[in-house]
Design a protein that fits this description.
alpha+beta; three-stranded antiparallel beta sheet; Cytochrome p450; iron ion binding; about 50% helix; about 450 residues; globular
Length: about 450
């Protein structure tokens, strides 16, 4: 984990030893499709397996959030409050905001490339522009105020604080697993975690402003669905708002950047996806959350990108609890007090589950005969069970809004400097490189 190559090591172990491997003295990794439900689903008489919090949250000094709290009742209550803001019907109310910033992205990129006789090909770091757009979208959806990234063509300080916080957490996890949890606690107490502290400061400021107004957004569930007997606690609100921003911005950024790279690395599929979009819409005004979801080839491109480059590639460890006598996972007996997990990246890239796993081929998910024996249920990029990702629908809405407008408006070609873009370190998030593309306005 420290070096950022742990998921690749786990994949190599599975390729050598099979569907279950021991990655630590008391920890097992699985790749079989059945293991998803057995590890993360609800078990009659037992419920869902509890989080292996000793691996995921090394210091109890860090405040609880929907992502890391090990308390099932607390998690259920938090999820119930937040869930209404992430239903399909709720997200349709925010369609206009997603469209607004996706369209602004196109406007800004058009300005770089020029029009008419002045039209030229521009070398652009497209992932940087995706980041600007997604951060503005999340700022608008969560706090009612975009961060001006697109208009200023630059990052807001919170972007760096969020990404830096994720990297700091990865270091803390590694330190804790090496037996240095005492040092982690000392660092938290002494306020040495700069990015975490900066993130908390900005989040609290945004929350205070948001709490002064009445509006419907992604935070409505947290702020309005609170028990009247239980006062709003900033120590609960802040980490949940931070996780909301990190999840909505960073994971969507990885997904749209990954899809763009994978399509451009297979020009025949890029051309087919662009043709589907251009033949389906006469203008960007026709693109809505509903209409962009009705493109079968693009949907296959997305599903294959999620297998090849899942935005959350690492595991969510669970613990077989004491006193249960052990459990059965995908036909394997696992004794109590054992940590178990599935790495989405590893399950999706396993040759046990998928033919030619390193090949990006959207036809895999569109009925191509040679992939008939693939174990499609092994690819679960958003997780499974009561702790699965709430933001699936939001991620798809943002992705389709961005990709349809980019494919409709521009011709893209992968720059030579980014041919190996997919070779990345992974800690809690992907450490994405600049994604350089040659961009020009398409001829209509």
């Amino acid at each position: 984990m420290w070096r950022g190559d742990w998921i690749y090591q786990v994949l190599a172990l599975h390729e050598k030893y099979g569907p279950v491997v021991r990655v630590a003295p008391d920890e097992l990794s699985f790749i079989e499709p059945e293991a998803w439900k057995d590890i993360y689903g609800h078990r009659p008489g037992l419920g869902d397996l509890p989080k292996a919090i000793h691996l995921f949250r090394p210091s109890r000094l860090l405040p609880p959030s929907l992502l890391v709290t090990e308390d099932r009742v607390q998690h259920r209550n938090l999820r119930a409050r937040i869930l209404p803001s992430f239903t399909d019907s709720a997200l349709r109310e925010h369609d206009a905001q997603i469209i607004q910033y996706s369209t602004l992205l196109v406007t800004q990129l058009r300005g770089l490339c020029g029009e008419g006789e002045a039209r030229k090909t521009q070398l652009v770091d497209i992932s940087r522009w995706y980041n600007f757009t997604l951060f503005d979208i999340m700022g608008s959806l969560a706090f009612g105020e975009p961060f001006g990234c697109l208009e200023q063509s630059d990052y807001h300080p919170w972007c760096a604080a969020l990404s830096g916080m994720a990297q700091q957490i990865a270091v803390l996890l590694a330190m804790s697993n090496l037996g240095f949890e005492w040092l982690v606690s000392a660092m938290v107490i002494a306020g040495k975690l700069t990015n975490r502290n900066k993130n908390a400061e900005i989040t609290r400021e945004k929350l205070r402003r948001r709490m002064k107004v009445q509006r419907t957004d992604l935070l409505t569930g947290i702020l309005d669905n609170w028990d009247e007997k239980e006062p709003l606690d900033m120590n609960v609100l802040q980490p949940n708002a931070s996780m909301l921003m990190l999840g909505g911005y960073e994971t969507s950024s990885s997904l749209v950047s990954g899809l763009t790279f994978l399509l451009l690395s297979r020009p025949e599929f890029y051309s087919r996806a662009a043709s589907e979009v251009r033949n389906s819409f006469s203008s960007m005004d026709d693109m809505t959350g509903l209409s962009t979801s009705e493109l079968p080839f693009l949907d296959g491109c997305i599903r294959e990108a999620l297998r090849r480059y899942p935005p959350t590639a690492g595991s969510q460890p669970r613990m077989v609890p004491s006193g249960c006598g052990g459990v059965n996972i995908a036909g394997h007996f696992v004794p109590e007090n054992t940590t178990v997990s599935i790495y989405p990246y590893v399950a999706g890239m396993s040759s046990e589950n998928f033919r030619d796993p390193y090949t990006y081929d959207p036809l895999r998910f569109l009925g191509e005969a040679k992939y008939a024996k693939d174990k499609f249920e092994a690819s679960q990029p958003f997780g499974m069970g009561p702790r699965s990702c709430l933001g699936r629908s939001l991620a798809f809405a943002q992705l389709r809004a961005l990709m349809c407008r980019i494919l409709f408006t521009f011709d893209l070609e992968l720059a030579e400097e980014s041919k190996n873009w997919l070779e990345q370190r992974h800690q809690i998030i992907w450490e994405k490189r600049p994604l350089l593309v040659h961009l020009k306005v398409a001829e209509k």
